[in-house]
Structures are given as structure tokens and as C-alpha cells.
Q: What sequence folds into this?
């Protein structure tokens, strides 16, 4: 039987509440062993080992846990007796951890993140089935060499595109640009395309912190205040969650241009939730030294930019190559 190691971090999948309601629950109350025990049938699919890496709601996910996960996954996947790793995670920042792991963990064995929208004690909790399906994916030969995957609600997503799209719905995880990479069906795991995976694996510094990168959310009536605040706080990079095609008011664009002149890397992303941000369409990136985020939304662009700066990749041309090239 394949051997899958579950690294538990908390989240709603491990949350507890009154059984009739999902309101007012506490995330991260249920241990990894209890999660496994709640999914009968797992023992017929794989030999499961569990490790509790953290016990947090994912709003508190942080670089210390990210570095621990990356090191532990590297060590586990190097072992001949481990066939894949599962990470249980809160849904709120799951997509950021998935991209981080995709960008720093190499190798062919599956790494799968899984969460749930209803706490473990809710009626019709979705965690046990999601966990079982994630184990099915982690043990599937066709899941190898696809980078980090996310499994919830019968769907398999690639780390780059997947995003939480609804505060409440069970089917909250979507890949708005490319669609899911596959499904878990009663007949097994089916992939219908490769998850988009960047070919590069970035090197982590020996310990956190990663370089500070701020996200600035654009809006009507915007001025340069937030951007100047980010610069004053020591940002090494700024991601603009811009309107439309990654745009912002003239005062904000001027402040971002000043930030570039001061050595800060500026990436323009979009607050719209889907579609690419392209170079030199609405904003003269070449003239201002900006980078266009391609299909990376603001939260994911921030993770990638942190790793790029940590790896000494800071010129607009080199950063643009990591963000999909000069489109
Ligand atoms: C969290 O992200 O930890 C809370 C929400 C959830 O897991 O669905």
C-alpha cells in the first residue's frame, strides 16, 4: 500500500462547533489522528502517518509554518517509504500556502493541500470526504509531477490558479482562468489537463523572514497615502491590486514610479479576480519600470515576489520573466 504522510496545520477542517450549526466554531480543535478516524475507508487506500505541524486558523498562517512545512515535505519526499504528502489547512489562505509550496518544493511525488468549509462536528461536514479524495489523489500515479495540488469538493486544482471565491459556499475553490486540473469521480482520479506549473524552484533562505512585500488595494478616490506608507514600512516590493487591468489613479501610479526609483520592485496585479494583467496596455510599464502580473492575483503575486527578491531577482526584466514573460 502507498504511504501518505498528513501534515496537519488546523483550519475549519479541524474545527469544532455545535453539531447543528457551523456558526461560532473554533478552528483547529481536532487532531490529525481524529481527522483520519473520521474518514472510514482511508485505511483501504493508503498507510497513513500523521504529524501536527501547527494548530491555527489559516488567517494566522505565517512564514515560520511555511518554512517548517517546506523542510518537512522535502525530507519526507526524499524517503523511499513515503509516496506523497497531504497538508490539511484552513481555506482562507490555503491558496497562498499552495503556491508557496509549489514554488519551493521540487520532485515528482504529489503534494496535496486539503481543507473544508464546514467544521468537523457540523452535520454534513465536508472534511472527511475531502480528506479521502485528497488521499486518493496523493496516491494516484497520474498525480505525479504536477506540482502542488489542491483538492476540495471533488475537484483537483493547480496551485497557481486556484482561489477561494466565496465566503460561505462549499464549492468555494475555483480556478477562474483555466478551470480545475481534474476531478475525483466514483471511478477514480481523472486529470483533463496539466495544472499550470512554473518550471522554476526557488531557494529558501535559512530562516524567515522573507522580504517584506505589501499589497495595495486600488479604489476610486485613491491617493498616494498607502503606497508611501508601504515604502516607509520598509517594503522591498509592492503588489498593486489594481482596478481593471492593474491600474490606479495618477497619484498612485506616480508614487509607485517613485518607489521603483528607490529600488522597490512594483508588480501590477488586478483586483477583478480573473484574467491576465498585460504589459504596456493601460500603463506604460516599460517607461515606469513596472512588472505586469500575468495570471497571478494579488495574494499569489505577493508570494512569488517575496521568493524572487529572496533569490536576488529584482530587475523588472527578470521579475517579468517569472511572471509569465514579456506579454
Ligand atoms: C481558516 O482558514 O482557518 C478558517 C476558514 C476555513 O478553514 O474554512
A:
Amino acid at each position: 500500500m502507498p504511504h501518505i504522510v498528513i501534515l496537519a496545520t488546523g483550519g475549519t477542517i479541524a474545527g469544532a462547533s455545535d453539531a447543528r450549526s457551523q456558526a461560532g466554531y473554533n478552528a483547529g480543535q481536532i487532531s490529525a489522528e481524529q481527522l483520519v478516524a473520521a474518514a472510514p475507508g482511508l485505511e483501504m487506500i493508503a498507510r497513513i502517518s500523521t504529524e501536527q505541524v501547527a494548530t491555527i486558523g489559516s488567517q494566522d498562517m505565517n512564514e515560520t509554518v511555511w518554512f517548517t512545512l517546506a523542510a518537512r515535505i522535502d525530507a519526507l519526499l526524499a524517503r523511499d517509504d513515503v509516496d506523497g504528502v497531504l497538508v490539511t489547512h484552513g481555506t482562507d489562505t490555503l491558496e497562498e500556502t499552495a503556491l508557496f509550496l509549489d514554488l519551493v518544493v521540487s520532485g515528482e511525488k504529489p503534494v496535496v493541500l486539503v481543507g473544508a468549509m464546514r467544521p468537523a462536528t457540523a452535520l454534513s461536514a465536508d472534511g472527511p470526504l475531502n480528506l479521502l479524495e485528497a488521499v486518493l489523489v496523493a496516491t494516484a500515479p497520474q498525480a505525479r509531477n504536477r506540482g502542488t495540488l489542491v483538492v476540495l469538493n471533488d475537484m483537483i486544482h493547480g496551485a497557481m490558479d486556484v482561489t477561494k471565491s466565496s465566503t460561505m459556499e462549499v464549492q468555494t475553490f475555483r480556478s477562474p482562468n483555466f478551470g480545475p486540473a481534474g476531478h475525483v469521480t466514483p471511478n477514480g482520479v481523472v486529470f483533463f489537463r496539466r495544472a499550470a506549473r512554473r518550471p522554476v524552484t526557488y531557494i529558501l533562505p535559512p530562516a524567515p523572514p522573507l522580504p517584506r512585500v505589501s499589497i495595495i488595494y486600488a479604489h476610486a478616490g485613491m491617493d498616494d497615502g498607502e503606497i508611501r506608507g508601504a515604502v516607509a514600512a520598509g517594503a522591498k516590493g509592492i503588489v498593486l491590486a489594481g482596478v481593471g487591468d492593474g491600474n490606479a489613479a495618477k497619484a498612485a501610479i506616480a508614487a509607485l514610479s517613485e518607489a521603483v526609483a528607490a529600488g522597490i520592485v512594483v508588480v501590477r496585479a488586478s483586483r477583478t479576480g480573473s484574467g491576465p494583467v498585460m504589459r504596456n496596455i493601460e500603463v506604460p510599464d516599460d517607461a515606469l519600470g513596472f512588472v505586469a502580473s500575468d495570471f497571478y492575483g494579488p495574494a499569489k503575486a505577493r508570494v512569488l515576489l517575496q521568493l524572487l527578491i529572496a533569490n536576488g531577482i529584482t530587475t523588472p526584466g527578470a521579475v517579468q520573466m517569472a511572471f509569465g514573460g514579456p506579454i
